[in-house]
Amino acid sequence: MRCQLPIVLLALVVAQVFLCGCLSDEPQGLHTRFMHKLSIKTNTPIENVTFLVPVPTRDDLPAIGSEQISDAFYVDHLPEHYDCTIVPVDGQYYLQLTAPQMDPARPIHVDYYNYTSFGDKFRPEVVPQLIDTRYPFGNESLFSPKQNLTLIAGAPGIVETRGINPGCRYSYTIPVYAYYENGTRIEIYSDIWGENGWVEQFDAGMLNRYYDHYHLVITGDPQGWMPAGGVVTTGQGMYEEWQLNASPTSGAGE
């Protein structure tokens, strides 16, 4: 029994150290994620195709987070017979897509994902490098130009540090251009997501995010420039005091 006592005490000490680490208030594994999707689908074959669709911009330039995007960003994700270029239109940036034809079996689908890790240990100096999910307007990548931007849910500036915040939602319209022949139904969708994530006590996953998306369905003949409906959601998820007290520099990895 005397030999077993030190072993039991050692086990208790190890367990206490383990529990203290698990119950620490400091976050572990801070990371950010950006995601972007573009989808254009047709129900029937169409010809002489031209689309102009908004791309994510930050600081008035095409960018996703700190990564600037160019024609090459989209070329790798498109069928070979498409010509694409990012063009300025009235001070905003659009992806111009042209093709002699578009087949329903080969829709346009762009899917981008970027993950940035800030290490396992919490370091306060990296907090300002997190994505500004509460105030993305003017700070993060969004679609432009937004017209008729209207708050439809939530209260800006109110954030709870307990539970999941539903965030704020804004509706808007955004111009999209389409020209083609022989179409019956075209669907255009694009989104951009920015997320901060970390783990806390007993590996509980935590995150907060913002996201922006627009959607347009065209039936019959296209009308040139048309308003797509969009929604921006900000400040959704879980927030802690160490994040609320920081001054984000907008965008991960800077």
UniProtKB/TrEMBL annotation:
It comes from the Archaea. This is Lipoprotein. It comes from Methanoculleus marisnigri (strain ATCC 35101 / DSM 1498 / JR1). The lineage of its organism: Archaea, Methanobacteriati, Methanobacteriota, Stenosarchaea group, Methanomicrobia.
